[in-house]
Design a protein that fits this description.
alpha/beta; about 290 residues; 14 strands
């Protein structure tokens, strides 16, 4: 079992005829994902890697019964692409696009909530259910099926830590990159709730960084509701104050959004926090939650 998607989820790719859309559609098909349609306005009737292309999400859904969307759409068109998917009835939308304005994401969150739809991202590497399906750009080869759920704000740290978990024979149930932007569609708390209820997830890895409040909110939820052990790693411990370090969200905008403040909040909630990425797998192997 997994959260968000499985091997039977029918997927459409918005922006499938672009360079990134074509490349990652092939990678998703190779992994076994059921990519049933592509959507690019004005390109209906074409085929990409054996996948039919439609002019609109609505047409694609009628023809293929697609359930989830992954968008490889330039930033200036990405917001409209997400609106179209949700308005057409898609319930899970993954946005890989970087550079969507924050105020657009804020409005999108309200619109999606009214339609009971979920956005992962923007600026997300996607979702992987090892051995079943993947949406987005994460490399499939580093993942192995197993009981560890992984949630992350950082793409490259996700790859590094997931590869280490697999080397330690700690397979993953679902891996989700929530996105590195300051405002994202789905935060840590919503996904922790899903993993806490997932019978095939036994432990959780949370990968955070400086900036924003996602980790503090996660700590509050873990301390009061989480029944499964959590190991965390927080990047940016030595970052200078008010310095961007890559992601738009990675800027210390308040005294309590530093790495040290996040680490203290997570430890107070009973989470073991790794000092470096490689230590995450070691802590999971040694036994996780303090006091458990």
């Amino acid at each position: 079992m997994s959260i968000l998607l499985d091997a039977e989820t029918r997927v459409l790719v918005q922006g499938i005829t672009g360079r990134e859309g074509r490349f990652h559609t092939q990678r998703m098909l190779d992994y076994g994902t059921k990519v049933v349609a592509g959507v690019v306005p004005g390109r209906g009737g074409e085929w990409v890697h054996g996948v039919p292309v439609f002019d609109s999400v609505r047409e694609a859904m009628v023809a293929t019964e697609a359930e989830a969307s992954v968008t490889f759409v330039p930033a200036r068109f990405a917001t409209d692409a997400i609106y179209e998917a949700a308005f057409s009835g898609i319930k899970l939308i993954v946005s890989v696009t970087e550079g969507i304005p924050v105020h657009d994401v804020v409005r999108l969150r309200r619109f999606l909530a009214e339609r009971n739809a979920r956005l992962i991202g923007p600026n997300s590497p996607g979702i992987v259910v090892p051995g079943a399906a993947k949406l987005g750009i994460m490399p499939g080869s580093i993942h192995t099926p197993g009981p560890v759920g992984v949630l992350s704000r950082s793409s490259t740290l996700t790859y590094e830590i997931v590869a280490a978990l697999s080397r330690f024979r700690l397979g993953q149930s679902t891996v989700v990159g929530i996105g590195g932007d300051y405002v994202v569609g789905t935060g840590f708390v919503e996904l922790l709730e899903l993993l806490n209820d997932d019978p095939d997830t036994e432990e959780v890895v949370l990968i955070g960084e400086i900036g924003g409040m996602e980790e503090q909110l996660a700590a509050e939820y873990i301390g009061s509701h989480m029944s499964k052990p959590v190991v965390a790693y927080i990047a940016g411990l030595t970052a200078p104050p008010r310095k961007r370090i890559g992601h738009p969200g990675a800027i210390v905008d308040r005294s309590d959004s530093s790495a040290q403040e996040k680490i203290e909040a997570l430890r107070a909630a009973g989470v073991q926090v790794a000092e470096h990425p490689a230590q995450v797998a070691e802590l999971l192997q040694a036994g996780t939650r303090e006091g458990a």
